[in-house]
Specification:
The structure is a homodimer. In chain A, α1 packs across α4, α9 packs parallel to α10 and α13 packs parallel to α14. In chain A, strands 4, 5, 6, 7, 8, 9, 10, 11 and 12 form a 9-stranded mixed sheet that branches. Chain A has 17 helices and 12 strands. The first copy, chain A, is an alpha/beta fold. Chain A has 2 domains: about 140 residues, Enolase-like, domain 1, CATH 3.30.390.10; about 240 residues, TIM Barrel. At the A-B interface, α1, α4, α12 and α13 of A face α1, α4, α11, α12 and α13 of B.
Amino acid sequence: MPKITAITTHDVRARTSRTLAGSDAVHTDPDYSAAYVVLETGGSLRGHGMTFTLGRGNEVVLAAVRALEKPVVGLTLDDIRGDMAAFWRRLASESQLRWLGPEKGVIHLATAAVANAVWDLWAKAEGKPVWKLVADMPPEQLVGCIDWRYLSDALTRDEAVDLLRANAPGKAEREATMLRDGYPAYITSAGWLGYPDDKVRALCRESLAQGWRRFKVKVGRDSAENVRRCAIVREEIGEHAVMMVDANQAWDVGEAIEYVNALQPYRPLWIEEPTSPDDILGHQAIRRAVHPIGVATGEHAHNRVMFKQLLQADAIDFVQFDNCRLGGLNEALAVLLLAAKFGKPVCPHAGGIGLCEYGQHVALIDYIAVSGSLDNRMLEFADHLHEHFVDPIVLRDGRYLPPTAPGFSIEMRAESIAALTWPGGSEWSA
Amino acid sequence: MPKITAITTHDVRARTSRTLAGSDAVHTDPDYSAAYVVLETGGSLRGHGMTFTLGRGNEVVLAAVRALEKPVVGLTLDDIRGDMAAFWRRLASESQLRWLGPEKGVIHLATAAVANAVWDLWAKAEGKPVWKLVADMPPEQLVGCIDWRYLSDALTRDEAVDLLRANAPGKAEREATMLRDGYPAYITSAGWLGYPDDKVRALCRESLAQGWRRFKVKVGRDSAENVRRCAIVREEIGEHAVMMVDANQAWDVGEAIEYVNALQPYRPLWIEEPTSPDDILGHQAIRRAVHPIGVATGEHAHNRVMFKQLLQADAIDFVQFDNCRLGGLNEALAVLLLAAKFGKPVCPHAGGIGLCEYGQHVALIDYIAVSGSLDNRMLEFADHLHEHFVDPIVLRDGRYLPPTAPGFSIEMRAESIAALTWPGGSEWSA
């Protein structure tokens, strides 16, 4: 039985700020980075996990990972999978460390890296990709991976079991559909805020030629500039393609309403992160005022309690959680179930480094086992840094093909870790 | 002109878990700790600041403080006080570091330590205590210390100026009242959850003899036990003293309503932290269901956007922010103004280590310059660890006497820092 004997950490950073890939209204110079974690077992089986950051501060997340050694090292895989929710709560509610959150910020990002490394370890031990490991679980086992605290006023454990049971009959067919067709995606690579117009036009044309029909555009604090950029993209992609816009938290509530309504002629499907990610009531007010444009948020919504309220308040149309911002897959499963209960589509946040690799598993679990639907659902895609992974994502005709290798697809190539290690790797010392 | 040349950090921890002082329903073994920061100027003038933690993880906050050196070191005091809001935003919205929050968790705790050290530096440079520095500011200067982003749907900068102007005429008289009588306090030291009944009874009697008439009691997950403890405290303190109860986030929303209503016979003034600190809508539901018991929260509410919503949703009766959980005094001033606009009393969270020292300044600013009221207002007091401060709090007849030494009262004695340094100090090596 594998036993976790140590946690190894790596400070992995790509120097993406050189190209302005990933630039937006508030993140002007990101260096896409991973606080990277390896659970050692003394043998060849290892659990790999990471959380995503923008560069500076990656070392702070790794300090938090080391603080989590105490509740993890020494456990066997059976200790963990025997009561996965209790294991997760040991991480998320450690009696002294919880003051640093609770369940938010650096300590929750670290919880995600460690929890997802455990999922990787478990899936490898069973010889399955994570999506298949979870999709194959009986309903009681799946809900047993979730810490249900603070959710019962919106969704009880028993309701969740009933929901999973009701969707169980179609699981095999949906899995076959995914293996044949893949999961629908949209592309963000064309519209980074730091890109000049001619580059945006060229990337739109290139993406159209590659088969993409759904495009996300970054907008910012200058409303006239936003209108101009959306007009360019709409002109390039034509009337029938889908456009989404993303403000990355740039606006106050009143500004958001005014600036989003100025984009109505270009018919965006959603406005993403119009204001503070903590502002549930603000999103509710914006949503009421910008119809028929939908409201999307979640990459900075930090835990299941925030999503519970976004859903209770009918504040969003699209649920965009991030598998690292939430405390890993355990909490992502809770949000999938909440979204299914409230009838809202989940479109996971991806991009960055490793987030597409993680996100495909979550999207597949949602379709095969939880919501059973593809309506209004699509997974973000950005064309960065996939070459660093042992089992990178595979896209075909704008859809993610399900990974088949055991684990969570997050293991990085040894030579990539060496090259991207900050500050000594060749990426930084050159 | 003083210039910040370096940030020195100290990992200061008191071994309070030995006595169960500070124990509650979810924090069972706290070691009251300070991520302690000194802004060096190359001369004898220094800025001292800290944020509070429960022990493990204190080193993670200090790693975050070091990550904030970049936007701080090299600035002069004039650079900062010339546009205090812009300085604060440089900390809270650093383009890469903000991913670690934004404005929450470890990076925000670190922002608080650094921002409050700047306030200490500024106040010492002017030879005033911080409360006096702020209370003496013209309205425009005070609101110029606040980052107004995300607030305009609830309170604009202009409204805040008007509010301060309307209260300005009574400032001198209120200051004189404070210097004569002090600010009202309540005591938490009697009712820690880990204390046996006879110790609680003895501490209640002792506190009554010292003049205390307001007492807070910790409650937990066992409703019958809560009823029993409240009955004991009510019996000891009599019918006319004030009792508050504090659940430290132990319950789901439905449980909170049931368990709080079971305490109605003992007439607590408020239930504090009945559920997740992120659950604005949950607090709203609880408040509606437990009247006439009031709802209080805030020591884990992480920024001004959360307080904005708690007030917009009429979800709480008492605003209990923590000057370290928020990003320091700049953000605390925003919440004081929001609370004044919505007509809710602020009763700052204190206790721990250093929080009473900080909290007295905030409470004095609220009374003298912002709300102008003492109605339903009182500052928490716990009788721990004040001996470690150069200018410790002074209480008389259950009231805080205003500090008169320049600064934020947070400078620790050099021998205390040495003794409490983790893990090498005598507190830990003995």
